Amino acid sequence: MWQRSACVGLLALALGYLCLLGPELCPELLGALRSREGRMAAAWQAAIVRPARGWARVAVGVNACVDVVLSAVKLLEALGLEPGDGKNHAVLNSGQDLKEAFAHFMEKGAAAERFFSDTEAFHHIARTASEYPGAQLYVGGNAALIGQKLAANPDLKILLCGPVGPKLHELLDDNVVVPPESMQERDEFHLILEYQAGEEWGQVRAPNANRFIFSHDLSNGALNMLEVFVSSLDEFQPDLVVLSGLHMMEGQTKEMRQRRLMEAVASISDIPTDIPIHLELASMTDQDFMSNIIHQVFPLVNSIGLNEQELLFLTQSAGGPHASLASWSGVPDVGIVSDILFWILKEHGKTAERASDLTRIHFHTLAYHILVTVDGYWGNQVAAVAAGARAAGTQACATETIDTSKVFLKAPLEFVTSQIEAPSKISLNPDEPVVHWHREGISFHFTPVLVCKDPIRTVGLGDAISAEGLLYSEVYPQ
Question: Most CB atoms closer than 10 Å: which of 12, 147, 199, 250?
Answer without folding.
Answer: 147
